Each structure stands twice: as structure tokens, then as C-alpha cells.
Amino acid sequence: MQESEFNRWLLAAIGRSPTAFHVAANVRDLLTDHGFTLLEESEPWDLSTPGSYVVVRNGSSLVAFTLNGEDPARTGLRMAGAHTDSPALKVKPSPIRRSHSYVQLGVEVYGGALLAPWFDRELSLAGRVSWETGAGGLDAGLLDFARPVAVIPSLAIHLDREANRNRSINSQTDIVPILMQAAADGNEPVFADILLAQLRRQHPEIDCRAILDHDLFFYDPAAPTLTGLAGEFITGPRLDNQLSCWTIARALIDAPERKNSLIILSDHEEVGSGSPEGAGGPLLDSVLERLFPEPGQRQQVIRRSLLISADNAHGVHPNFTDRHDGNHLPRINHGPVIKINAARRYATTALTAGFFRLLCRRQNTDVQEFVMRSDMACGSTIGPLAATRTGMQVVDVGVPTLGMHSIRETAGTSDCPGLLRALQGYFSLASDDPLWHGWLS
Question: At how many degrees (to 10) do helices 3-15 and 415-427 cross?
Fold first, then answer.
């Protein structure tokens, strides 16, 4: 796949995936369309023959793996991981508010979102809802209004002359989206009825008596785009970390010769990963236990495996270069970034970094490094959690990005294709290849 073709495909994939639920569903469908067999955790697994498989948990995380017939205790697993969620505004359980002539929806801030960019943008609403069926049973599915339905207007500068000099944002009172004009008779709409009407429009075949509950998020419905005078940038919502999710999935599908491989795309990284489907939970452990029930064999596999944890990296901002360490200034369109932290907020070691450098060199992909300023707090990824839970070796990498955790972020058109090439080569590494063989020994 050419760089321009891959970027078009990537932008389309992000555009149709407004929440972690949609990412997991769309990646699942992509994999099954390319021959992966869908497994259910509640059912027995027959893995007696080589093949490719995918399993989804909570509708928002997934693990996919390929077994090619070689003994994983001898060859290890070529593993890669990312997270499906992005910072957003999550609708509260009983959200309807009426203020003067407006109906608003109360929200919680999900993750470390930059709040200022959420003002004065058209917002849509998507996620998962549960409902009562006509027979009195429980069911759930995806919902997406797929059009602008709300806005958070800024306070006019005339009413806040200090807004450009000293602005703070109260997450309880200042970022309450306006959903609609209130009815003249003062009757408030029932939010469950609004969702029921949308569900029936979107899925008329569904047997739904009443909406029971929801996990819904506001999002920017404007599509990701190519920007820059030469079209050298990607600007769009949820680049962190859907860029990595889709690149990993595409690399696994398109690997020239797929070896024993596994990918994990986890939800809830933006809020600490502490959930059954998060990287701090048992998802990866439980899949490995089912693949390798004998503990000794499982430890052999883990000790001979490597996880490439892919999560966006902080590109140097031309207006704020002092926020970076002067010797570590990742630039957009100069290759993936190896992320390093002495306090182990990233799990990279000299060994795993060296492996990734050689991997990229083989694919003619440049590599950069990122280290947080020593006087600033460092973020983290799923990498240290996976390393701590399983004992496997990890390298943390990512595509350099500007505006991370904004409602729209910016990356480069050559960096994701560079990461794609590296991962395709990674999933194809033969067990007797000097690079992988050196790792195994």
C-alpha cells in the first residue's frame, strides 16, 4: 500500500470510529474480513491448527493473534499494542439540564483533555447503549448521531475582558453542551426517548422497548484531513491513539509472511487502564493463559516475546521549544519516536530500543528519541503495565504529534507509513533471522 493510499485509508478509518467501542468493532470487522476467526471468551477455543483469531472484550478492547504452526515456546510472539480510547466529554447518567431557553447535557471529562478547543465546535454524540428487548431481555449496541447535535459556546470577549490573559475552565459549569432549544411549555425532553428515537432511525431492525443506560461521548464530527501547503500534515480528532491502532492492525494484515504474532488494543488508557478490558486488567494475561495453559511453556513464550507499545509522542512545538529537552526534539515527518524515561513511565530499555532501531533501519525508516524534560512530569502508556503484569520486554514508541489531547491533533503524512513498514517487517521476522534470533538468545 502506497503512503498516500494508506493515509487516505487511515483517515477514513478514524473518521468512522468516534469512540473506543467503534474502534474495536471496526478493527474486528477488518480482521474478520481478512480471514481472522472471531472467538468468544465464554466459549471453548479450538486452536489445534494454525490460523488467525480475534477476541473482543467489553466491545471496546480486542486481542488478535496468528499462530503459524511453529512452536511459540521456541519462536516467541511478535507483539504490538495500543489503546482505543481518546480524551472526550462523557455524558452523565441523568444529563438533562434546563437553563433559560436551552436544554443542555451534563458531562464528565474523560481523560486529560485540553478543554479550551471544545468551545464553539459542532459536536456529535456516539457510544454504546443498552436496552430492554420486546421480550423483556437485555441487549446492547452502538449508537452514533453522526451529525452535529450540540455546541459549547464561548462567553463573548465583551463579557470577559480577561479571557485572553487569565482564563480558567470549570469542568462542572463551563463546558455543558447545548443540545436544543427548550420547549415553550417547559416540558423537559426525556433523554432515553431521544436515544430510543435515534437507535430506531439507525437500526430499524432492532427489537428495542426502552433504553436502559448508556456510555456516550461527545466528539468532533468533522473528518480528519490533510493540511499544510503541500498536504504534509494530518489534522483530525482522536489521532491519539487511533493512529497506532489502525497502523498496527493494517501491518498485521499486510505482513508479507505472518509469523507467530499478537496485537492488543486496550480501552481506558486515558484514565489509568484500571478495568477488566484495560491494560492494567487481566485481558492479555487471560488470552496468554488460554493459548499456553501450561505455566512453564507460557513463561518460555513470554521470555522470548517482545511488545512494541505504540502511543503518540510529543512532537516539538515550534512556538514552545523550551518545553522539550534540547537534545530530544522529535519532529513531524522525521520518523517514529522511541520513548525513554528513567522512572519507567516508559518501558523501553537499551536492548528493546536497539531492536527497534535495527527494525526501522531495515525498512528505511528514520527513528527519533523522546525524553521528557527532567523538571516536568512524564506521561505513560500501556507498555509499563504490560511489562509489569507479564514480565515481557517492551519498547515504547509513537508517531510525533502536535496538540496531543486536543479535540483535533496534528501528525505527519510520512510517519504512520514509516511505522507501518517497520511493523510489517516485525510481524514477518523469521525465527532464524539474525535480528529475531539474536533477541531469542
Answer: 100
